[in-house]
């Protein structure tokens, strides 16, 4: 039995998968912002929750959560507090705002004086960072908030170009 056709098919699928999933953006090409310029708020409110704020700042800015529970960060090997707000998750590690997962329009992400929220077009991000639309893949993009890719905000967009999730993750 000739194994050449099987090997050729295997090599074809291997090269297609590398072409599809191997398009990484170099770290230096990812737009970067200072973490101190990022905050969370309820749309229309002037009260903001900034990184480094305690849970008292959370309650002042976003009100009472729908649920609060301990959450274990395996990489940090520490317990954090997870506060849920109608589908949005806010994590506090060592008593300070650590990360978030925004999935609804009830909480917005503020970058300086600009804000973005779920349902906004991707152009709302592109206007903040020159060339951002050229430095992302078709399904989302990253904004660095530190020196590494494990300190960033990830955006997911739908096929119409609207933001569907905003996630900030960080590893200490």
TrEMBL record:
<feature type="signal peptide">
    <location>
        <begin position="1"/>
        <end position="22"/>
    </location>
</feature>
<protein>
    <submittedName>
        <fullName>Uncharacterized protein</fullName>
    </submittedName>
</protein>
<keyword id="KW-0732">Signal</keyword>
């Amino acid at each position: 039995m000739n194994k050449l056709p099987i090997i050729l098919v295997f090599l074809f699928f291997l090269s297609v998968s590398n072409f599809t999933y191997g398009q990484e953006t170099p770290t230096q090409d990812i737009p970067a912002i200072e973490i101190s310029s990022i905050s969370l708020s309820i749309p229309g409110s002037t009260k903001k929750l900034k990184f480094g704020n305690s849970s008292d700042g959370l309650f002042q800015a976003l009100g009472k959560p729908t649920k609060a529970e301990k959450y274990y960060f395996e990489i940090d090997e520490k317990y954090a507090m997870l506060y849920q707000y109608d589908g949005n998750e806010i994590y506090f590690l060592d008593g300070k705002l650590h990360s978030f997962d925004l999935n609804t329009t009830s909480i917005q992400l503020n970058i300086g004086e600009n804000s973005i929220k779920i349902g906004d077009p991707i152009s709302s991000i592109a206007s903040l960072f020159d060339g951002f639309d050229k430095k992302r893949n078709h399904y989302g993009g990253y904004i660095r908030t530190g020196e590494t890719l494990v300190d960033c905000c990830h955006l997911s967009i739908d096929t119409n170009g609207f933001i569907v999730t905003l996630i900030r993750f960080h590893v200490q």
